[in-house]
Amino acid sequence: MNPRKFILIDGTAVIYRSFYAIRDLSTGDGKPTNAVFGFIRMLKQTRDSWMPTHWAVVFDGGLPKERRELLETYKAQRPAMPDALREQIPFVEDYLNRAEIPWFRMQGEEADDVIATLAEKARHECETILIATSDKDIFQLIDDKIKIIPVAGKGGLLDVEGVRGKTGVVPSQIIDWLAMVGDSSDNIPGVPGIGAKTAAKLLAQFGKLDEVLANVEQITSDKIRIALQQSRDLLARNRAMVRLRRDLACTPVWGELEVVHTPSANRLLPFFEAMEFHSMAKEVKEKDLFIL
Q1: Residues with Cβ < 8 Å from 227, sequence gap 6 or more?
Q2: Could you give the domains of the chain?
């Protein structure tokens, strides 16, 4: 078994969390730096807590045309990225390049699909694959090799039984579960009158959504039976919406994904000084390196 431990980090989730967790951090001339500072610290926490041999950060590259064609209002309710956060993204990218941390962004593709593709391609190359995310869509990827970890700190590792505890279903049923329940965070409506517990009970009874629909006459609740019968098109669309792509054109080169524990001080020090991250700059000066 290959001893590689590969961590995929939802960079978009981390940068948003950092932006809202740290307030009013900026340079002397007013340039906001709170998201950058928090991002660096969260990556260090992830590395120290889970000790990967390989890792990569993945950012959203936009909404796929296929999902927007299926549902015009997909994620339409989400507010635009704050300007103070948007202007920090180039600094985050600059840091990742200087720290020799690999990162991916595919134009027109969501981070979840890129993560799913990289995880699938890593399946036969790694002993362990951990995904740092807060997105429940990723639950569908979890199995004996792939697990979810928090985007910051140690927290708990989410495995198959953890998914069952949170949702009432196992990862292989998540797509069907989400198809019935919907996803308010993505503006995907579910079947009227069917919530998380009802969907879990239906899947426990019938196993999968196709069997639920094939045996819908066995459902004793008139309300639920009629709702399902009237929502066949919605369910088919939702399944297509929530199923993650695992076949995108991104291939990990393992030699480029290795964790670099002592990135170049000469590359990092000017960045930390420009950002006015004095504690990080001091660490580089004292140790002649920044131990990430």
Answers
A1: 191, 192, 193, 194
A2: 5-166+245-287 (3.40.50.1010), 168-242 (1.10.150.20)
